[in-house]
Design brief:
- By secondary structure, the protein is of the alpha/beta class.
- Among the domains are: 112-280, Uridine Diphospho-n-acetylenolpyruvylglucosamine Reductase, domain 3 (2-Layer Sandwich); 284-411, Alpha-Beta Plaits; 714-894, Up-down Bundle (Glutathione S-transferase Yfyf (Class Pi), Chain A, domain 2), CATH 1.20.1050; 907-1011.
- Helices cover 44% and strands 13% of the residues.
- It has 47 helices and 28 strands.
- The strands form seven sheets. Strands 14, 15, 16, 17, 18, 19, 20 and 21 form an eight-stranded antiparallel beta sheet that branches. Strands 5-6-12-8-9 form a five-stranded antiparallel beta sheet. A four-stranded mixed beta sheet has the order 1-2-4-3, with no helix packed on it.
- Strand 8 and strand 9 form a beta hairpin.
- Helix 23 runs antiparallel to helix 26 (662-671).
- The longest helix has 21 residues, at 358-378.
């Protein structure tokens, strides 16, 4: 029996009072004070962890003003705040033990766009790729290109002065900011934009907060102009720390106060809105992938490529390439980065050209090709080959691989993981190769492995040393390496924080700036934030303040993780290894990644959020002396009993009375999961929420009663065959309003699916029957035509026409199909955490299917969500007892067969099941190959989750989210297509379309049969 878990950190009274005061004042945003909500923003993509007191999520500018104005009241003046955007920072910039002000959930509006003047005005929570998707039809884009562009917010980009790929041509964020609207801690709204010096002087003459700010920044930047120019490095990537140089234009006639806000890491105020200039999209692109025999060769060759007038030069090392090869992303790019026969590719430079004039670009590409050919002939440059592509889709996919490298490094095997803490060093590009050689020697001296990738054209290379933060000795090594890297970058004329900001590395700021200039930064901080209330400790503290800067020695996630026994961490490695890269926050409507996160915009309802909650739950369990693994084994071996049942009743009564238990907060997050497993395929770390969710549900319900719907769902494979004996009567009952009302009220189940009439048995009339003895007596020639169709509960009992059509199709193609007897697969049990029952179901099915392997006949299934259980959950549950049987999906087998030419001039459109296309990334391509063999045209439609996901869409509590997910991508795509041309692979997806469109689309196999 698991204990009741009480969070260690309760809410301070002042925070409760502040929350109440905000609500009374008319705050319209969200205020989240639960332990789970605070934990969800206690980490970012860094090694650090800090639990905030609360999370404030304003809806608009007025809410931001209310926060700051209310905070000015005497009783609240000890409260401090930190702005937060996408939470993708690698150095803890947005982490705080105070109050988080998160602008990413609600403040996501694009407010105004002027194509003629080439600018756009947005709220701070707008995501970078969201903005570019809006701009693309108009022929523009927002240029700074980050690896985290599908979840990084504009506010976060402004606060870290983000740059990324192509910065030599496009610059960094500050080069594109035309105006800012910033809410100060005083409650004042500060509007900044370039202005004549005389106008700035007028502001400075005002006797108020804004006047004091202008006076201080004007004074500091004028008086110390020569010092600033001498101290600030001549690098493309000088980032964060109050840009004292660029508040002035070159001839000192224009002044822009906003330049100290860009790169300020949220330490001066809350950026609410930004006016940005936008860049025309260059219509012509070419990517040259240059391959090398070593990473050093790739680095040394970079200046040669930059000199070839490339737009950008990106690089990755062999470690990143090897990790990419093991990821879902590789199948999209492997044809464009082919291995060189007889050579080993250990480095890759991606050289991009883009232009508005195609001829101009072709001349540059031709000149580079000529020089590459010469280098290959000479054989002394390390170049072993190159490939060109002009295909825009391919170029985007290759860059997606490069962007994913950030997360892929975190998927390295073993306890030591490549970590971001000294990985955005910037040195002059001509010094890069020598610098990296010495950097590598430094890491080698500590016996550390590492991965590298980055922007060699700008002298920025991301080097991530691998450390185990659960080992206190290796945690000390982080400090030692950090100190050494600071000194090394200084030696080569660079700096440690070339791209990802300072954050917890702010302690190195004074040494870099020098006492004089650093004191000017502190004076500026004092003018904006005299009491050090906004992101305290980051960049600097106000002059005369005794507050300390944050340090690389700050509390790290490993401090908490090491409190979980290593055996438990290893058993729950999917949750333990999440590094916070945040790819699960992908905003894209057509991405299958984490539907619940996409639709709720709640960080708890994401793989990162759920993994964090699971880790904390395991930690608290361990602190209470509970052996989680022993508990699991006990539950797998025993069903409990009356004594346990009585205890669960008492606990459930306490739950209804409002008794606190952190387990309930974890449960709330787990219940929102659709169990689609897109995370397991899409996440670079392979965080598999449904797997650890099932284990949590089993443990949770050893303390609390299960809802009735869990038993109904888990038992569907046992009940469906019985109900199918009288389908007409069952369907008649389900269609009665009182019955539907009763199901909704008692079980929480709506829109119950109807059984197939006629049933499968009635459709096939004893044809295709299974007889093992008869099959074993078949000749070798007969066995070569034998195909075994594995049943699943959804298609066999609720879509019997599909199973019958599959059998007919196989027969028409010249094969001998046999329908195997229905045996429960166990997925519904697994989804609801009935793991003891699932193990028995899985062993029973595995024993039967293993008997059939001797026949040598392919075993095929129709529904991906169930077939894939044989490959994943069966392995985890049964281990070696699973055996070696293999069940393929129809398309995996069909793509290898010969097909007759079929006659149809129609263009068909494929909508693939998200579980299927994330676990089997070749799915859509396979169906296209199948159709092409038959002389048919099949276009793939990019869609996210349909919102059904098994029984998720039938549960009353999920109705709003289920419909919203359907509307997000499926409805829009279907509205553009005749439903007769729509082909859908997933049972859930077809059911959802029928639910909202009134007509069920065909499975691709049904169209093939029809045309045959």
């Amino acid at each position: 029996m698991i204990p009741k878990l009480t969070p260690e950190h309760t809410l301070p009274e002042i925070v409760i009072a502040f929350s109440q005061a905000l609500q009374s004042a008319g705050f319209t945003g969200d205020i989240e004070t639960s332990y789970a909500a605070r934990l969800a923003v206690a980490t970012d993509n860094s090694v650090y962890q800090a639990l905030p007191q609360a999370v404030l999520l304003p809806r608009h500018l007025a809410d931001l003003q209310l926060i700051t104005q209310t905070a000015q009241q005497t009783q609240f003046q000890s409260l401090k705040f930190s702005p937060r955007g996408g939470g993708t920072g690698t150095n803890g910039q947005a982490l705080t033990e105070h109050l988080v002000v998160d602008l990413s959930r609600h403040m996501r509006d694009i407010l105004e766009f002027n194509a003629k003047e080439r600018w756009v005005r947005v709220q701070a929570g707008v995501i970078k790729d969201q903005l570019n998707a809006f701009l693309k039809p108009h022929g523009f884009f927002f240029a700074p290109d980050l690896s985290t562009s599908n979840r990084a917010t504009i506010g976060g980009m402004i606060n870290t002065d983000a740059s990324g790929q192509g910065s030599l041509v496009y610059g960094k964020t500050s080069d594109h900011v035309l105006a800012l609207k910033t809410v100060l801690v005083s409650g004042d709204v500060l509007d900044t934009a370039p202005m004549p010096v005389a106008e700035a002087e007028k502001f400075a003459a005002q006797q108020n907060t804004i006047g004091a700010i202008y006076r201080q920044v004007l004074g500091s930047t004028r008086e110390y102009r020569s010092d600033i120019l001498a101290k600030f490095p001549r690098l493309n990537r000088f980032l964060t720390g109050y840009d004292l140089e660029h508040v002035w234009n070159d001839d000192l006639t224009q002044f822009d106060l906003g330049r100290v806000i860009t790169g300020s890491e949220g330490s001066l105020g809350f950026v609410a809105e930004a006016k940005l200039n936008v860049t025309p999209i260059a219509p012509f692109k070419c990517l040259v992938n240059v391959k090398y025999d070593s990473f050093v060769s790739a680095l040394k060759n970079a200046p040669f490529l930059v000199a070839a007038q490339a737009t950008s030069v990106e690089t990755v090392d062999s470690k990143v390439l090897d990790l990419a090869r093991q990821d879902i992303i590789w199948h999209q790019v492997k044809n464009y980065i082919e291995d060189v026969p007889g050579k080993t590719m250990l480095g890759l430079n991606m050289v991009e050209y883009n232009a508005e004039d195609e001829q101009e670009m072709q001349q540059k590409v031709a000149a580079l090709e000529s020089r590459l050919q010469q280098a290959l002939a000479a054989g002394d440059s390390g170049i072993i080959g190159y490939q060109l592509t002009y295909d825009l889709g391919a170029i985007n996919q290759i860059y997606a691989m490069r962007k994913k490298a950030v997360g892929l490094l975190g998927n390295a095997k073993g306890q030591q993981k490549p970590l971001p803490f000294a990985e955005d060093t910037a040195v002059p590009p001509e010094n890069l190769a020598d610098f990296i050689m010495e950097f590598r020697a430094l890491l080698d001296s500590h016996g550390l492995s590492y991965g590298m990738f980055g922007h060699v054209d700008a002298g920025v290379l991301h080097v991530r040393p691998a450390l185990d933060m659960c080992d206190p000795e290796q945690e000390k090594l982080l400090r030692q390496v950090s100190d050494q890297v600071v000194a090394l970058t200084a030696k080569y004329g660079g700096l440690m924080w070339g791209e990802h900001g300072k954050g917890y590395r702010s302690e190195y700021g004074p040494a870099f700036f020098g006492e004089t200039l650093f004191n000017e930064l502190r004076k500026i901080k004092a003018a904006f934030d005299p009491a050090n209330r906004i992101n305290p400790g980051k960049i600097c503290t106000p002059l005369n303040s005794k507050d300390a800067l944050v340090s690389v020695d700050g509390v790290k996630r490993g401090f908490y993780d090491r409190q979980i026994p290593i055996q438990v961490r290893q058993s729950f490695d999917s949750a333990a290894n999440c590094n916070g890269n945040g790819l699960c926050f992908n905003y894209e409507e057509n991405s299958p990644m984490c539907p619940s996160s996409k639709i709720t915009k709640d960080r708890r309802h994401s793989p990162k959020g759920r993994a964090g909650l699971m880790r904390e739950w395991l930690r608290l369990m361990s602190k209470q002396g509970v052996d989680v693994l022993a508990q699991e084994q006990q539950l797998l071996a025993s069903s409990g009993g009356l004594k346990n049942f009585a205890t669960r009743i008492r606990n459930s009564i306490g739950k209804k009375r409002g008794e606190a238990d952190f387990s309930h907060e974890v449960m709330e997050a787990m219940e929102g999961c659709l169990a689609c497993k897109a995370c397991a395929g899409q996440c670079p770390i392979k965080v598999d929420v449904p797997s650890f969710r099932a284990r949590f549900l089993q443990l949770y319900h050893s303390r609390y009663l299960r809802p009735l719907k869990d038993y109904v769902v888990a038992g569907i494979e046992q009940s469906a065959p019985k109900l199918a004996k009288m389908p007409g009567l069952v369907n008649f009952g389900l269609e009665l309003r009182p019955v539907a009302w009763l199901l909704e009220k008692t079980i929480g189940y709506v829109d119950s699916p109807l059984l197939s009439v006629p049933t499968l048995a009635q459709r096939i009339q004893h044809k295709y029957q299974f007889d093992l003895t008869q099959l074993q007596s078949l000749s070798l020639a007969e066995r070569e035509k034998l195909v075994l169709l594995v049943q699943d509960p959804f298609t066999s009992f609720y879509e019997a026409d599909l199973v019958a059509d599959a059998l007919s199709l196989l027969e028409k193609l010249g094969f001998t199909p046999v329908l195997l007897p229905f045996l429960p697969n166990g997925k519904p049990q697994h989804v609801k955490g009935f793991l003891r029952e699932f193990a028995k179901t899985a062993q029973n099915a595995a024993d039967f299917l293993n008997q059939l392997t001797a026949l040598g006949a392919p075993m095929l299934g129709l529904d991906a969500s169930l077939v894939l259980v044989y490959r994943d959950e069966y392995v985890k549950a049964l281990g070696e007892k699973r055996g070696d049987f293999e069940v393929k999906l129809l398309h995996e087998w069909l793509v290898q067969q010969q097909l007759p030419a079929l006659n149809s001039s129609e263009k068909y459109r494929l909508f693939a099941h998200c579980t299927e296309k994330t676990a089997l990334p070749a799915t859509e391509k396979s169906w296209q190959q199948i159709f092409s063999k038959a002389g048919l045209t099949l276009d793939v439609v990019s869609v996210g989750c349909c919102g059904m996901a098994g029984t998720y869409g039938h549960e009353k509590q999920n109705q709003q989210n289920s419909r919203a997910l359907y509307d997000l991508s499926w409805q829009q795509a279907l509205q553009q297509t005749d439903l007769q041309q729509v082909l859908v692979t997933g049972f859930s997806c077809r059911s959802q379309v029928k639910r909202y469109e009134g007509q069920k689309p065909q499975h691709p196999l049904q169209l093939l049969l029809k045309l045959l």
